[in-house]
Write a structure and sequence with these properties.
With 517 residues, the protein is mainly alpha-helical. The protein contains 21 helices and no strands.
């Protein structure tokens, strides 16, 4: 290992130890499930905002999205536009009402328990279905974060002959550190580390492309630097409506990318932050902070891909494009030890993006298993202590399964995130919206819509039904669009043709409008 690698590794070690210390500190104040899974509903505005957005923007923000823009140009930024729209709508439409409703509906600690309390599901059917969906799709989502961490380590510390072995070591380190502080500290540890990680991500994602762009264009125009690096027509590369090769970005592609915004309404690890904010006034503060953070981070992420295309001395292909940000930092911060260490801190921004999502996913999965399946259905009289340990064991199991899913060094970060995002958005998005804003929605409609949404994504993305290919491969249409639409329609239709909600449910629904808590 070179001296440069040792310096970068020291920066990583300092950062990881700090995260573990935070977990140890908060483990002392975690006494029950509400503390572990919801932090006692006591999040402040800044922590809630940055925690929600840092847990949202996983490794794909600094690796997957820049890689896509690097290869195809600004025609790929429509995903960022869709995510920005989804973030704004989620904070303004869902956040405050969800927080109030979950308090009134039996002080619900999880999204599945909110569904059960909202619809008075005495048999726990919707809780079980929700918990299973969370366990399946969050395991895939967590695998994408672990894979991001492993690729970071392999890109930094491997040579041509040992990439796979370093990838495996990096995978183990990333999984272990995330597991330790999530296991110990619970929700408050996760949110505090997410706050720190969100700030670090913001600094890294702003500073690196700005400095690289300044150096790149000091003696020449940006278009000329792109031409020098093999971009035949910069006007196409920098056109929102054209691909790098000059072909137009299809309407299906733009619609599919914009549709990523729909996923926000069904993301448990983001929705849980709304539930944990301590007051309505803090919600108002959080939404402004969160939206500002998202605008800056998404714009900077896209800029990274564009700048890297002209800045990097060696060009990347499809399999290595997701390392564009890593290689830009390496090339930018080379020289003496201090400069290399600063580069290592910026590389920790990528690690922050990875860890801030994986920890949240593990925690929500644990809450689904502990609070919704074990204490909610399997053993309703379980003590707080036993239920808490079941949740922590679930954290370990999910992490292990995600580890094995991420073992393939060639796995696509964007591909894994896309599948999980579509699954949650289709299964939970329509249910959350109708539960909050349509009093006629009932249990039968919610369960039916949830099941149809999840199954649609699985069929669309995984089953080879069209000449040996999946429907997604044949059409290019993102499964979230179809799954969300079908889940919504089925929920509405089934609710209308089945029994109306009870007067008690309707009264509770109406009370949310004037409630001030």
């Amino acid at each position: 290992m070179t001296t440069n690698n040792i310096i970068v590794l020291c920066a990583f070690a300092v950062y990881m130890v700090m995260m573990i210390i935070i977990g140890a500190v908060y483990s002392k104040s975690t006494k029950n499930n509400e503390d572990y899974f919801l932090g006692g509903r006591n999040l402040g505005g800044w922590t809630a905002a940055l925690s929600a957005q840092a847990s949202d923007m996983s490794g794909w923000l600094l690796m997957g999205l820049p890689g896509s823009v690097y290869l195809a140009g600004t025609g790929e930024v429509w995903i960022a536009v869709g995510l920005l729209i989804g973030t704004i709508l989620n904070w303004y439409i869902v956040s405050a009402r969800l927080r109030k409703y979950t308090i009134v509906a039996g002080n619900s600690l999880t999204i599945p328990s909110f569904f059960q309390n909202r619809y008075r599901d005495t048999k726990g059917v919707i809780k079980i279905v929700s918990a299973l969906i969370i366990a399946v799709f969050f395991t895939v989502y967590t695998a994408s974060a672990f894979s991001s961490g492993a690729k970071l380590f392999a890109t930094l510390f491997s040579d041509d002959g040992n990439y796979n072995s370093v990838y495996l070591i990096g995978l183990g380190i990333a999984a272990l550190v995330i597991l330790i502080y999530t296991f110990m500290g619970g929700f408050k540890a996760v949110c505090t580390t997410d706050f720190i990680q969100g700030m670090l991500m913001l600094v890294a994602i702003l500073a690196v492309p700005i400095v690289a762009y300044a150096l790149l264009t000091f003696n020449d125009g940006f278009a000329n630097t792109l031409i020098a690096k093999g971009v035949s027509n910069p006007e196409n590369y920098l056109n929102f409506f054209k691909n790098d090769d000059g072909t137009p970005v299809s309407a299906v592609s733009i619609i599919s990318n914009l549709a990523w915004g729909l996923g926000y309404f069904g993301m448990p690890h983001i929705l849980i932050r709304f539930m944990a904010v301590k007051s309505h006034s803090e919600i108002k503060k959080s939404r402004k902070i969160a939206i500002t953070w998202v605008i800056i981070s998404l714009a900077a992420s896209c800029l990274i891909g564009l700048v890297a295309r002209g800045y990097l001395t060696s060009q990347l292909d499809g399999s290595t494009s997701e390392t564009a940000f890593i290689r830009t930092i390496q090339q930018l911060f080379s020289g003496n030890g201090v400069v290399i260490f600063i580069g290592g801190i910026f590389l920790c921004g990528i690690l922050a993006a990875i860890m801030s999502t994986a920890d949240s996913q593990l925690l929500v999965t644990a809450s689904a298993v502990s609070e919704d399946m074990y204490k909610g259905v399997i053993k309703k009289d379980a003590s707080e202590k036993n239920a808490l340990w079941v949740g922590k064991i679930a954290v370990i199991i999910v992490a292990v399964v995600a580890f094995f899913i991420a073992l393939d060094p060639n796995s696509s970060i964007m591909g894994l995130v896309s599948d999980a995002w579509a699954g949650f958005g289709s299964a939970f998005g329509p249910v959350v919206l109708l539960a909050l804003f349509w009093k006629r929605s009932n249990l039968a409609g919610a369960v039916s819509g949830m099941a149809v949404g999840a199954l649609t994504v699985i069929v669309w993305d995984y089953l080879p039904l069209v000449n040996g290919s999946t429907i997604y491969a044949a059409t290019g249409l993102y499964s979230l669009i179809v799954g969300f639409a079908l889940g919504l329609v089925v929920n509405v239709v089934v609710s209308l043709v089945t029994k109306k909600p009870s007067k008690e449910i309707v009264k509770e629904f109406e009370s949310i409008k004037t409630l001030e808590i």
